[in-house]
Structure formats: C-alpha cells, structure tokens
Amino acid sequence: MRPTLKQLLKDFLKVTKKGTKMFKMTKKSIQWGEETLTLETGKIARQADGCVIATYGETSVMAAVTFAKEQKPGQDFFPLTVHYNEKYYAAGKIPGGFFKREARPTEKETLTSRLIDRPIRPLFVPGFKNEVLVICSVLSHDLVNDPDIVALIAASAALTISGAPFMGPIAGCRVGYEDGEYILNPEIDDMLNLRTKPEQRLDLVVAGTKDAVMMVESEAYELTEEEMLGAVNFAHEQIQPVISTIIDFAEECAKEPHEFTQPDYSKLYAKIKKSGEKAMRKAYSITDKQDRTTSVNEARDIIKASLSDEDLDDENLGSALKKLESSVLRGDVVKKGKRIDGRALDKVREISSEVGLLPRTHGSALFTRGETQGLVITTLGTGDDEQMIDALEGTYRSNFMLHYNFPPYSVGEVGRFGPPGRREIGHGKLAWRALQAVLPSATDFPYTVRLVSEITESNGSSSMASVCGGSLSMMDAGVPLKAPVAGVAMGLILEEDGSYAVLTDILGDEDHLGDMDFKVAGTEKGITSLQMDIKVAGITPEIMQKALGQAKEGRLHILKEMANALTEASDFSVHAPRIETMQIPTEKIRDVIGSGGKVIREIVEVSGAKVDINDEGIIKIASPDGESITKAYEMINSIVAEPEQGVIYTGTVVKIVDFGAFVNFFGKRDGLVHVSQIENRRLKHPSDVLKEGQEVKVKLLGFDDRGKVRLSMKVVDQETGQEITEDTAKD
C-alpha cells in the first residue's frame, strides 16, 4: 500500500525535527537586487559571542565575533581588530606559489579588513575599551558576487546579535554607474579593470546605518559632484531592506546585552579643565606643528602636576585630556571660524611643486603642502615587470602599481620601520584609484608604471599628497596622462546642537580631534576617487554636498598650483626603456621564436633589446638604447616580412654560377641576378664583374612560375642605389 501525502509529510517532519535537535538555528532571507540575501546562525561556531553566515547568490562569508568581558587594566584605546580572509577552497582553487597555503594577507584581504573596520568602529558605545575581534572567512565564492560586501553585512549581523555594546546595525552595498543609471551590486567582471571599460564609470562602496552614511570608498572616472552624491544617496536607499532584515534577525536570536556603563569622568574633566584650559588654548594657538606638539605636551604636564595620585591613576585620564583638547580646537572652529594655523575654513595651505629632482630615475616630483610632503618616483618597465595577482576570481596582471611608505621620521618620531602595514596599503590603494583613471591605454602606452610615494613630512592627508606628487612624477617621466589629478582632504566639526563646519585641507590634529576624514581626488572635469570615514553616527546629504562643493574648489586651486611645475608629459628620460610595438602574422610567431627559442634568443643577444611576443602576434621591443630597438626590429622584420616587387634592396653576392649570381637581399632570402641583368652589356661570365661577398644593389623584378626570385642589377645605379630611368640613362 502506497503511503499518503499526509503520511509522507509527517515522516519528513519527524526526520527534520530529529536532525535539528542539536542546533537552535535562525534564518532570514530577502530578495536584494538580482540575488537572494540570507542570514543564518546557530549551527556553526556556537562558542563565539556571535556568528553569522551571510550568503548572497552562491557567495557565503562567515563572520565570527568575540569580545573580552572586561577591560584590560590601563587600556586607554579601543582595541578592535577585523580580519577578512579568503579561503581558496571557496572558489575551488589551490593557492599559487611554492608553499601552497594561505599565508600573509593579500592586498585585497587587507583592504577589505579596513573596509569593514571603518564603519563599525564609531558605532561602539563611547568609553567601551574591551578587546573585540571580528573574523570574516569566505566559505564559498560564485565568482559573480564580491565577498567584501557580504562580509560587511555578516560582520554587522554578528555584532548585532553578540551582545556587545554596538549601536548598529549597518549594511553596505556596491554601486556601478553605466549610461546614466546606477547599478546595485554589479558583477565582479563588470568591476574588474574598469580602465578598459569606458561605459562603466564607477565602483563605489557605501556603508551606513538606517539614518546616515558611515563610510564611502570609490574608484571613479571623472564623475561630477552631483553624480557622485546621487550614487551615495542611491546606495543608502538600497541598504535599508538589509538593515531591517538584520534587525528582524536579531530580534529572534540576539544574546542579552553585555552590561556596560559608560564611564562618568565629569568631575575629573572639571578639574582638568580648570587647571589646564588656558595652557591648552595657548598651545593650540601655535601654528608650527613641532612647536605646537611640544606645547601641548607641556600643557598636559601642567595638568597632571595639579592632579592627585588618585586622579592620575584614573583609567579615564586619557579620555578626559583628549576631551579638553577636542573642546578647545572644535569650539574655536565652529564658533569663531578660527583654525589651528589661522587659515579660513575653505583655504588650502601653501603649495610647492618640483619635478626632475633625481637624475637617474625615470621621473620624480616633490610635492609640499604646508607641513605635508611627498617625494614620488616613477619607474617605467616592460611587460615582464607587470604585477601578477592571484585572486579567488583567477590570476590576472596589472601594469600600474603605487606603493606608499610612511617612515617614522615623517612625523618626527622614533617608531616601527619595516614592511607596509594596513595603513600604508590602504593609503597607497586610495592614491592608486585616483590616478589610474587618467592613465593612457596599454595600446597607446605599452609600459608598466610603478610609483613609489615616500612621505618625508606629514601633517594631514599624505595620501592626497601622493596623488598630487604621483601625477607630476608620471608627467615628468613622459607618461601621457589624460589630465593632471589632484586630491584634498576635507574635515568636519559637528556639534551636539547640529551646528557644523567643513574644513578644507585638514591638519593632523583636525583629523584626530574632528569628526570626519573626507578625501576627494580628481581632474578639472570630475572626481576619480572618493573616500570618507566618520567618527560620529553618520552625516546628512546636506553636509556631504557642502563637503563635495568645497572640495572641488580646493582641488581646482591645487591643480592650478601644480601647473606651475608641469602641465603635460615631458620628454622620456634617457634612462627609461623605449618600447616599440610591431604586429606580425600569427603564423610567423613560430619563425620568430625558433626551435627551442633559438631565434628570439639570438635577436636579444645581437640587438641588446628585450623582446616580448604574445599569442596574438604583438611584439614589444624594449631598450633604453634606440639603436638596439632598431636592430631588433630589423632582425624580426627580415624574418616575417615579405619582399615587395619593384622595391630596391641592398644585398650580398653569395654564389656565382655560369648563368648569373645568387644574391642574399632580404633576411635569409636569396634571388638570382641573371647574367643578362648584371650590366647593360654582354658578359662572358658573371665573375668578370662580381665576386662572392660583394655588396650590390638589386631591384626585385618578380617571381617566376616556380616561385623563384628574379633580381636585376642593371636597372639600379650601384653607387646611389637609385633606379635608372630613361631620363637618367640619357644624362
């Protein structure tokens, strides 16, 4: 007897129930854009304070959150650490390299870790200084949806359910811009190598809360301020369903909130303010950074000397001192419109631009803006110098690199010196995004370009100094940029009563004690890169619009100052490689390479030039010496080119026979000069006039029925190499 549908359903529910006894799972799904977004918890990593697996399409990321239940004694900062890591198994790959295991973080992993850290950090309750660890692991990758956005959402959801004092949730999305339309979460392929896709003008990532934007990161292609603001607003609208889903999700599975009471240090602050406000105001009136830093430290010492031992041992002493410094700086800016260095709110510091400083480099520039200075060097290379990047999506090559270095001496300190940290990688990528939008196409400029930005002084926005210096350095190296690029950092002071001030070209202290770091880079026509980080619970479209407008004025001013040094590409350095490109038929590739690479090795050895050939028959010949390039070109051309009928060639007699002479006239090509074509007279034997090894001028008459080459000497003047016509014969 066959079981009824009712019985089958009953048995299914029984099995399902039996299988899920062990786990208390919560799952929520929504349709978001073209794909389904799913959040789930309760099955994996149950000992973490919060663990959420977010899936978008077939891309899954697990975010696990843990936090210390007590603050470490003497802890005076918030120790939040975010680790985003890509597991190659997620894409069905084995890592490249000799040691086939995920090791040090890739650039993508570092940048994504920063991407997640920046919007969540300001949303922890002020005064919370317990250690927090967020680990995001890519479990599955469909090669369509980028895991970075999925990781951001997973981290937000995990924090929201963890019980940590997190004032979220947040959500994020990616926005493209094509044919005047904003696109939600475009596919990975659409965002890869945007420089080669003129129809796609934007790669924008936005994170925010229900009410405000928290973080912006973008790569753009000369977008106007209105287009960029529209993209940010579009993104903020699109993340609202995700935020609502996280809230619904948390209502079902969130842990009890961790008991945390914001520290009350109002009495301590009152003492500090009374004893040190005057000295602190005097210190912040000093315009020179080093002198101001010294005076601020002296003011702190005065304050500490007035405090009791109990006050000095108070773990909130650092917070109270920072609050005093912040109130002095912020109050003067908002109420009086007065900045530390005496500038107006919208004024850029004094600028100096120089190029061609270093004699042996291919290009160099020194860009100084106030007390921020970058020495940027350009090096040009060939296809062999391209960066190979091993990513989950596959291996690809990049012909533009920008490496940013921030040594301790740039801020007058003794500190760590070594491999680049997260900050250096992040700042370098920001400058890279700003500049790569104006690079010439690989077909027009077949060079690999490497920029190194050495920050030699720093007091506010060294990444934007790298953009300005990088633009000048590349033009100094002869790179034909579409337009010069400049960048400026904007700041914000937002008071509790809603009053605010937007600052152009912020100082380090204005960044440290302010509420926003808003970096905008671009050309005269539009924005090429935008990055925003804030320390408050978000900013309004009104503030962002004002910041963008003020940034445009600052950018145009900086571009005008940069023009004093250079406005267009200079001549190539004599030390830079020259690259000539030639196209050969694909069937000739084998001839150029030769058996076991014998022919191409000979070309390289004889000419002294580097020779690269690809499967499409495009050959790149590179050398600082023009003669080497010419030699290699001629050698390759002699192999692949076909002789043309009616053209005069210079050849060498290789063999003399009774009926004429064989002449090598085109590469390895030989042809016959019949005895009747040697001179305009009857010869007994060709040896009467010619000998082996003799150089002669010949005209290609054509090919006989059997394909043999027919040459003539008598129609060419052997001295001048000119063809003898009837007129010249008469003369």
What report would you give on this structure?
It is a single chain. With 731 residues, the chain is α+β, with helices and mostly antiparallel strands. It has 5 domains: 21-253, Ribosomal Protein S5, domain 2, CATH 3.30.230.70; 266-314 and 316-336, Arc Repressor Mutant, subunit A; 351-562, Ribosomal Protein S5, domain 2 (2-Layer Sandwich), CATH 3.30.230; 578-640, K Homology domain, type 1 (Ribosomal Protein S8, Chain: A, domain 1); 648-730, Nucleic acid-binding proteins (OB fold (Dihydrolipoamide Acetyltransferase, E2P), Beta Barrel). Helices cover 31% and strands 28% of the residues. The strands form 6 sheets. The chain has an 8-stranded antiparallel β-sheet, sandwiched between helices. Strands 1-2-3-4-6-5 form a 6-stranded mixed β-sheet. It is elongated and about 120 Å long.
Keywords:
eight-stranded antiparallel sheet, Arc Repressor Mutant, subunit A, alpha+beta, 731 residues, Ribosomal Protein S5, domain 2, 18 helices, six-stranded mixed sheet, 28% strand, elongated
Chain-wise SSE layout:
Blueprint: H1 5-19, E1 26-32, E2 35-41, E3 50-56, E4 59-67, E5 80-86, H2 107-120, E6 132-140, H3 147-162, E7 171-178, E8 181-184, H4 188-191, E9 202-208, E10 213-223, H5 225-238, H6 240-253, H7 266-283, H8 289-305, H9 309-312, H10 317-336, E11 351-355, E12 363-369, E13 372-381, E14 387-391, E15 394-398, E16 400-405, H11 422-436, E17 448-457, H12 462-476, E18 486-494, E19 500-504, H13 508-513, E20 516-522, E21 527-534, H14 541-562, E22 578-583, H15 589-593, H16 598-607, E23 610-613, E24 618-623, H17 626-640, E25 648-657, E26 660-666, E27 669-674, E28 695-703, E29 709-712, H18 726-730
Helix pairs in contact: 2-3, 2-11, 3-6, 5-14, 7-8, 7-10, 11-12, 16-17
